[in-house]
Amino acid sequence: MLVCARLATAMIVALLLLISAPARADGREELDACQLIIARAAQATQAGTASSRQDEAELQRCRQIVRDWMLRESRMSVDEQGRPLR
Question: 3-state class of 49 per DSSP?
């Protein structure tokens, strides 16, 4: 009986986490969004607009995503359609 209650509780918690988890964008869409955020931040810097800590954290996360994509793409020998790059 105790095992069934624990199993049911674990299943409910897992279900709630799955339902409440934010939808993640596709990797390419996330890259495009991050490139846009970085471009806007560069424009704001040129305009002299101050950014908040939360914006700075988002900018750092986006810079890391762009770095990861650039590294991944530099190692690929084919494009998205499977054609050779070189």
Answer: coil
Report d(CA 10, CA 4) in Å as an integer: 10
> What is the SS3 assignment for 85?
coil
Q: What is the pLDDT of residue 62?
A: 93
The candidate with the shortest Cα–Cα distance to 25, out of 39, 37, 12, 42, is 37
pLDDT at 18 over 70: no
Model pLDDT, residue 77? 77
Domain ranges of the chain: 25-86
Report the distance separating Cα 42 and Cα 62, nearest Å.
13
pLDDT band at 63 (very low <50, low <70, confident <90, very high): very high
Kindly report the pTM of this predicted structure: 0.57
Tell me, rounded to whole angstroms, the distance of Cα 44 from its chain centroid. 22
CB 77 within 8 A of CB 85: yes
